[in-house]
TrEMBL record:
Keywords: Signal. InterPro entries: DUF302 (IPR005180), TT1751-like_sf (IPR035923). This is Uncharacterized protein (DUF302 family). It holds the Pfam family DUF302. Residues 1-23 form the signal peptide. Residues 57-119 form the DUF302 domain. PANTHER family: INNER MEMBRANE OR EXPORTED (PTHR38342:SF2), SLR5037 PROTEIN (PTHR38342). Transmembrane segments: none annotated. It comes from the Bacteria.
Amino acid sequence: MRRFALALAAALVLPALPAAANADGVVRITSAFSVARTVDALEAVIGKAGATVFARINHGGGAAAAGIEMADSELVVFGNPRLGTPAMQADPLAGLFLPLRVLVYGDGQGQTWIAYEDPGAMLDDLNIPDDAPYLAQMRGALQNLTMAAAAGG
């Protein structure tokens, strides 16, 4: 876990914009790049940080294949067992919410957004202490990875 955090911190040069969850627990930040380029950058920084991308789901492409118009939207599902396993040890139901997910989407006005649910909010109803160290580590990883992707990787 320490290696993951150190690699993440050393590998990423981040803009000075803080990410904070809204009242709904969802953190939203803007990207200056297209959805596809932002997701490519996100995948790259996830790999550099030592985590695994399990899936890249193209919601917009699925809608287009069904003949339905929708702005670009892709979901990236990823994780690192060193962060997720302790949560599932504390409460096996954490497996319903993990691995972590980040949505990158266009708003139809030309703006690309990156969104994810704050891990504390996501796991709030489970038997997981609010001060569990892995929640802070997940929160930090999500913030660092998404901010790096928003900056183009």
